[in-house]
Amino acid sequence: MKAIQITVDEKLLEELDESDEVKRDGRSAVMRRAAVEYLRRSRRRAISDRYRRAYAANSDLGEEYKGWEEQGEWPRD
Prior knowledge:
Distance between the termini: 57 Å
Strand content: under 5%
Low-confidence stretches: none
Largest sheet: none
Oligomer: single chain
Shape: elongated
Structural class: mainly alpha
Number of helices: 3
Number of strands: 0
């Protein structure tokens, strides 16, 4: 691991230090978990954005499925 230095607002640091998780595991462990979670969410958001752009760019089903849109039927409740 590599040691880094970050600047944190005093109020945020105070709240962080008061948490049971920080008292149990330490600031570094909690910050590492927060960074991992941030990266996981960021990757998920990027993947979702790519899917959304891909499907929005080509919203029709293509010639081979033309006319089939009306053939499907939603189940009745």
